[in-house]
Amino acid sequence: MKPARSQRPLEYPYTWDQFAHGEWACTHVQTRLDEWLPRLFGYHMLKLGGLSCEMVTGHCNIQHQVCIDKLNPLRNMEAENYDLPFLDKAFDVCILANQLDYTDDPHRLLREIDRVMIDDGYLILSGVNPSSLMGIGRLIPWRKNRLPWNGRMFTPLRVRDWLGVLNYEIVEMSCFGLIPATRHRTCGVWFENACSGLLPAIGSLYFIVARKRTYPLKPIKPKWKLKKSLSPVSVNYRTGG
Which residue ranges does the record assign to the Methyltransferase type domain (predicted)? Predict the structure, then answer.
């Protein structure tokens, strides 16, 4: 298993237009996101990265939304992902769309997101499944330097384990999109319905909804029990002479 931390420089995407089949991937992620947005409540939402900034969340109940990136024109703030300029437990929801594969230290990024998340807040993230047909495409030599194949592509099970260490409960984890169908979408939908049983294993994209759980520490009170002392029973008797 490759280490989570990387020493090589990574090209950080800031728009879906940089991706091969970016419109197709964005549409799939947006469809899953639309199913969850009406269920989310709170005061503040964080959309981290340019790809997250382009996700449509205007119909969400959370009105105050902060979009962070350095290049995407939809951003309303610039900041370092590893050092977010917010107080602890400031956001109710965080969206991280296809950004985890392009960070050199995903553990550090998740810890920083966890810092600014309130208790019972929701983290929604997506990425490319390396075990899919799309993920295997990174083995083709002329694709190694193109997005999304130049990313690190962590498996959804590995991401789930990282979230579990941070005490996140996985509410939903699904894979979808067997093959990128941009031109013949009708055939693509038919093919996915026919092979729906394979989607959990080899879907091109994964979508995870996790909820932060914080369990308070309760002191365990010692149970004091008095041990009964054993003493010989005195018996009065007489012996006749």
Answer: 76-125
